[in-house]
Design brief:
This protein is mainly β. It contains no helices and seven strands.
Length: about 80
């Protein structure tokens, strides 16, 4: 999974999810300090945008899970 820009500064982060994940990808955005899930969404593989507008500045973990694959990425929001 490719995620950019990181740090996210303009309210969105672009995500490129490989086709190996299939079509239904669950994303959880987790605040690293508290472990709290601050957002959950479902997206398709390929290129998409995820909004960071409701997130406070800090470090987050994005967990991508599908029936075929899973991956965890770290995101910094400024």
């Amino acid at each position: 999974i490719i995620m950019y820009p990181n740090p996210a500064t303009r309210g969105i982060v672009n995500v490129d999810i490989p086709l190996v994940f299939g079509t239904n990808v669950q994303v959880q955005i987790i605040e690293i300090g508290s472990g709290k899930i601050v957002n959950q969404l479902k997206i398709n593989s390929g290129k998409t945008e995820i909004s960071t507008q409701g997130l406070s500045s800090g470090v987050y973990v994005l967990q991508f899970v599908s029936e075929k694959a899973s991956e965890v990425k770290r995101l910094i929001v400024n």
